[in-house]
Every structure is written in C-alpha cells, then in structure tokens.
Specification:
19 helices; about 500 residues; single chain; two-stranded antiparallel ribbon; 2 strands
C-alpha cells in the first residue's frame, strides 16, 4: 500500500488546473489555443494518475484500498475516500474520457473557451469524488455538485432549445436527489454516523430499509435513467455539445448504477430483494419502450439517447439478480456503454461539425467519401447491438444468463431488446453510411482527420479488446463483488431464510 494520498491527488489535479487556467487571459486565438493545450495536458495527467492507481491496486483484496480519512464537519462527517474493485474501473473510465472530450472540443467551441474547459475539469473532480467517497454526505455533495458544471455546459454551449433542456435536466435530477438527502439525514439520526464502511455492516430494520431504499431509488432512477423518468435524457443529449453528450452518456449515467450497487444492494439488501421484481418490470419496459421509440427517431443523437435508456435497463436487471454473473455483467455493461455510447456521440459530432445537421435523412452514402469513418462507426454500432466479439456482448450475455436462472419470462422479454437494438442500430447505419451519395453538400465531405482518429481509434481498440478478452475487468471487480454478494446472502438468510431462492454463483 502506498503512503501518499493518491485519491486526493486525483481530485486535486483538475482543481489546480482550474486555478492555473483562471490566470490565463483568453483574449486572442493564441491564448485560446494555449488554454486548450493546458486543459488537455491536465486531463491527461489525471488519466496517468488513475493508471498508476490501477497498477498499485491489489485486485485480490476485496476491501477498500488507498483509504484517506480526515474529520471535516464535527466528528461524524468526514473527508473519507477509498476505492474497491467496483469503483476503480469507473474512475479510470472517467479520467480516460475527459482528454477525449477536450480534444473533441478543439474546433467546435467558438466562445467562452476558458470557461468551457474549466467546467469540464470541475465536472471531472465531482465525478471522481462520487466513485471514491466513503461518507454519505461527501457522496451527496459530489453527486449533486456535478449538476452545476453540466448545467452550464448544456445551458451555455448547447443547441437552440438548450435552456429548456438544461432546466428539465436540472429539475428532474435535483427533485429525485432531495429524497436521498432526507434519507441520509434520517440514517444519521438513526445510526449517529454517515460513514459508508460502517453502514455497509449495520443491520437496519426491514421497515426502515424499505423507506430508505425508495428514497435512494428516486434519485438513482432519475439519474440512470429508468422509465418513466427518462424523458430529460433525450432532450439533454440533443441540445448538449458533443463533449457534453460524451460525458453524460459515458460517466454521469454510471453514477446511478454505482449507487444502486453500493447503497441499494450494500446498505438495504432486504429492501432490494423485496423490490427486485419491481425493478425487473421497469427495466423490461425501459428496454422495449426505448428501443421502439428509437426506431422512429429522425435525429441521430436522440436515437442514441434512447438506446442508452435501453442499455441501462440491462444494467439494472443485472444488478438486482443478486448473482456474481449478473452484477459483473452489469458492471461490464456500464464500462462497455461508457466506451461505445461515448464513441457514437463522437461519431455524430464528426459529421455534425462538417454539415451542421443531425437529421438522419440528410445523410447517405458516406462510405464513398469517408471509409475510415464508416469502419469506426461500424465497430461502435456492432458494440451497441451487442455483437459477439465486442464489449457490448459480454455484459448483456452475463446479465441475460443470470436473469434466466431467476425468471425465464423476464429473460425472454429482455432478450427482445437485443433484437430491437439490432433493428434501430442497423437502420441508422444503413441510412447514414450506405446508399448513393446524392446530397450536394456531401460530395466534398472529408474523412477523419488525424485528431479525430486519435480520439476514436483507442475506443475502437477497447471495444474489440474487451469483447474478446474481458478477463482484466472481471479480475479487478470479482473479489469485491463476491464479498458484496456474500454480505447480502448473510443478511437475507438471517432475516428471512425461507424466501431465498436465488443461487449465488
């Protein structure tokens, strides 16, 4: 174990970057270029720090590592950080996408460049904080704090209906989180602490678990999002700049998935078991409904946004199977979706920067002028479908296998989502890439630039690599996941032994 506070360093590097950038005057093109390069190097440095964290991480140890604890407010609320096999992968995903977001914004952002880059660095700090917080109050501050920079990114640099979309996004997510805040206060009044490591081993009464579970569910369901509180996501994606959509799909949705695993399962296992059929029902509806709605979309971003709702339905299905296969499948699905969906939004951004439209009917025959782009887009479309050999297949397959062992009917309905995903994804690819090149403004469209290839090709590699060899991800998360399932099984057996029908793999 290392002696220096590497998690605080991960949180601090973007903050120091913001302070440094605030001293630079953005009064000409050269200054803006320097700002972009500074933000890129800061985000890349944080990515290297997260890789160091991953290298130093002991994958065989299921407990929290790199723990830092300092008393903050009184003697109960503390600055308490730590990571395990579940959270560390999401931290690396976050730090990997930030340099990509900044690089993708090089040419598309024309005004208030400094403020835009500072907002992204602030967002990075909040997102990393969510995944490494070991205090409920600290978690809540990071969880809600991320709303502010995202609110600004969509509201200032978004599209024509950006004000409507950003207020809808803010109010939906804040409304859900108010209930979580009340639950945190009640938990503190009940236990006298907000320390997550203590609360994970604290046996709450079943009646209280039901109430607290519903309060946390209200926040996480909006954030992930689940049907029927998903309507803010398509609007936010359509109006957000490309980099905003990347980080929204790639990381922000995963904060809720992480919350379900860490809090709903970890702290309220009895309530989670009780409400599991309810979660399954909402997830199945989300998968089928969102897929059908995606089939009739005319905007590329909106189609990918609805596909995100469907894919996150598989995540919630896997989490609440209470099996090793299911939870690991959900985690791999989150990582895969963070890569593939982010890449799809980047692909949309590439053609939008050239033609300035996202309307599907305005494209066609791009393979004739953009063969490299067509290849990259194909890989991500296949990953979104869940084709064998891509990362999307591994997560969905594990989730469906674990679901079949619990309820065949739920599994059959969930599997239809795979078929529908193929329908809308292949339809999108055919309309945009194949066909005749007849549109006048597409005749001279240029293929990927070197900057765009640097952005997309690492994501192409990861999509294929984890499709064939997901073992590194499994090795990291398995000890922590096994321990989580063991704790859940002990709690459920202790309280209601007659109702345990699930097999822990």
């Amino acid at each position: 174990m290392i002696n220096f506070p590497i998690l605080s360093i991960l949180l601090g590097i973007p903050v120091l970057g913001i302070l440094f950038m605030s001293l630079i005057r953005a009064n000409n093109a050269n200054a803006e270029r320097n700002l972009k390069q500074t933000a890129l190097w800061i985000s890349f440095l944080n990515f290297l720090a997260s890789i160091l964290l991953l290298i130093l991480f002991d994958s065989k140890n299921p407990d929290f590592q790199f723990v830092e604890k300092y008393f903050w407010l009184d003697s109960t609320i503390s600055y308490h950080l730590g990571v395990d096999g579940i959270s560390i992968l999401l931290i690396v995903l976050t730090t990997m996408l930030l340099p990509i977001c900044i690089l993708a914004s090089y040419d598309s952002i024309k005004f208030a460049v400094k403020e835009y880059l500072m907002a992204f660095l602030a967002l990075e700090t909040f997102m990393i904080g969510v995944f490494c917080s070991l205090d409920l109050v600290l978690f809540y501050l990071f969880f809600e704090g991320g709303l502010i920079p995202m609110f600004l990114i969509i509201g200032i640099w978004g599209g024509e209906r950006r004000v409507y979309s950003t207020f809808k996004f803010f109010l939906y997510t804040l409304a859900g989180s108010v209930l979580m805040l009340l639950a945190i206060i009640a938990i503190y009044m009940k236990t006298g602490t907000t320390d997550i490591t203590y609360l994970l081993n604290y046996d709450l009464e079943p009646s209280l678990q039901y109430i607290f579970w519903l309060a946390f569910f209200a926040s996480f369901a909006v954030k992930i999002p689940m049907w029927p509180v998903h309507t803010w996501l398509p609007d936010a994606h359509v109006e957000a700049p490309t980099a905003g959509s990347v980080i929204l799909a790639g990381v922000l949705l995963k904060m809720a998935g992480y919350g379900f695993i860490r809090f709903s399962l970890g702290m309220f296992p009895i309530a989670s078991s009780y409400f599991a059929p309810f979660i399954f029902t909402l997830s199945i509806i989300a998968i089928i409904y969102a897929s059908l709605v995606a089939l009739v979309q005319k905007d590329m971003k909106k189609l990918i946004a609805y596909s995100s709702v469907a894919h996150m339905g598989f995540v919630t299905l896997g989490i609440f199977t209470f099996s090793l296969q299911g939870i690991e499948g959900a985690m791999i699905q989150m990582i895969s979706h963070g890569i593939v969906s982010a890449a799809l939004f980047l692909c949309v951004g590439v053609v939008y920067d050239r033609i300035h439209t996202r309307e599907i009917d305005r494209y066609g025959g791009l393979v004739n002028r953009m063969p490299i782009y067509a290849f990259a887009f194909m890989v991500f479309i296949m990953g979104s479908i869940g084709l064998p050999g891509t990362s999307g297949f591994v997560g969905e397959f594990l989730v469906l296998m674990s679901l079949f062992s619990i309820n065949t009917y739920f599994a059959v309905f969930a599997t239809t989502g795979v078929v529908l995903a193929a329908a809308y994804s292949l339809w999108l690819y055919r309309k945009v890439i194949f066909g005749s090149l007849i549109k006048d403004d597409l005749q001279d469209i240029m293929d990927l630039t070197y900057r765009e290839m640097i952005i997309l090709f690492p994501l192409v590699f990861l999509t294929i690599f984890f499709g064939f060899y997901p073992q590194p991800l499994i090795d990291i998360m398995e000890p922590s996941t096994t321990q989580l399932i063991s704790n859940i099984a002990d709690d459920l057996t202790l309280v209601m032994p007659s109702t345990i029908e699930r097999e822990v793999y």
